[in-house]
Write a structure and sequence with these properties.
two-stranded antiparallel ribbon; 363 residues; alpha/beta; 7-stranded mixed sheet; Dehydroquinate synthase-like, alpha domain
């Protein structure tokens, strides 16, 4: 499989996704396209602690004036306060229209940094260097940027495409296992909506004890990225098909909010959300064996016993989702594994049952 995937969008020029182990030389060659001697790095606190020398050695060869801003760890950092602090850092340190911003970290860092890049001077060059499995297969691709609001997840943001993405599995060597599992949910998602064979490939990695080996994951990372690229190229601004990438997310975002963005990781919430979505799909006539997802449950160390809201109350929370249309919840469901569709909910009784089923599974 190629170590490069090109992304074509109708809103910006083509850009490339690069995949491999230690992309330092490739990154070094790439950054010489920029005329500025200044660059900004918005980087996750964990990555800064463990990999500063790795990325700084490359970037400092081109940029003599390198400004580094540390993004706190965790979903709770994706808020207005941290966004304004990062934007203030960029503006006060002399950003210009051609000054690049490098987002180095996981999904939180990429989403927040992308929003900073999109809004500083109405847009500065953005380069993603994803350092987690989740960011490599999902959040660094497609141009979604933004932050959370007290009423819901990712409600403030914009579409803003990067100029390049460097998915370097070198960074995965320090990734805690819980973060591997966090990213696993997005890979499982691609398997459920597009490529069912991926679930068997994941199980093989687990069985062969290569679950957290970055090199072994490269084929699945690239396959996941290709699926997202194909969908995004067809629907850049999520007005149609791109919505299928939210499989499990409408349920999951409610759990993240209910857990105050710290009790459940994004991946944990999405995993539970996919189980709820399968239950809802089966109610509408699909015949999907839940064991396809439940075989991975032992990897997830969380429960939902602390959720005090009733299924009906959880459904009401779903109505704050940004994909709601005319007050109706829009769910991504499956006709079968590999075939997703969007369903507009009129009677939410079956959604409540899906919630109850999922809560029972994760007691």
């Amino acid at each position: 499989m190629s170590d490069l995937i090109s992304v074509n969008t109708s809103t910006q020029n083509k850009y490339d996704l690069h995949f491999g182990n230690d992309l330092s030389k490739m990154l070094e060659e790439y950054i010489y396209k920029y005329t500025s001697g200044k660059a900004f790095v918005l980087v996750d606190a964990f990555v800064l602690e463990h990999h500063r020398q790795h990325f700084e050695a490359v970037l400092s060869k081109k940029f003599s004036d390198l400004h580094i801003f540390e993004i706190p760890r965790g979903e709770q950092a994706k808020n207005v306060s941290v966004y304004l602090e990062a934007l203030d850092f960029v503006l006060k340190n002399g950003v210009e229209r051609q000054t690049p911003l490098f987002a180095i970290g996981g999904g939180v860092t990429g989403d927040l940094s992308g929003f900073v890049a999109a809004t500083a001077l109405r847009g500065i060059p953005l380069v993603h260097i994803p350092t987690t499995l989740l960011a490599m297969v999902d959040s660094s691709i497609g141009g979604k940027t933004g932050i959370n609001h007290s009423t819901g997840k990712n409600l403030i943001g914009s579409f803003y495409q990067p100029e390049a993405v460097f998915a370097d599995v070198h960074y995965l060597r320090t990734l805690p296992k819980m973060e591997w599992v966090n990213g696993l949910s997005e890979v499982l998602k691609y398997g459920m909506i597009e490529a069912p064979e991926m679930l068997g490939e994941i199980q093989t990695l687990i069985d062969e004890d290569r679950f957290t080996d970055g090199d072994s994951w490269l084929p699945l990372i690239q396959k996941s990225a290709q699926i997202k690229v194909d969908v995004v190229a067809e629907d850049v601004l999520e007005s149609g098909k791109r919505a299928i990438l939210n499989f499990g997310h409408t349920f999951g975002h409610v759990l993240e909010k209910e857990g105050r963005y710290k009790e459940y990781s994004h991946g944990e919430a999405v995993y539970a959300g996919m189980i709820a979505a399968v239950h809802a799909s089966n109610h509408l006539g699909a015949k999907i064996d839940l064991s396809n997802l439940l075989q991975f449950k032992s990897l997830y160390e969380f429960g939902l016993s602390t959720i005090t809201k009733s299924p009906a109350e959880l459904v009401e929370m779903m109505k704050t989702d940004k994909k709601v249309k005319d007050g109706h919840i829009r769910l991504v469901l499956l006709k079968k594994r590999g075939l997703a569709y969007v369903y507009e909910v009129a009677d939410d009784t079956f959604v409540q049952k899906a919630w109850q089923h999922t809560l029972n599974i994760f007691k």
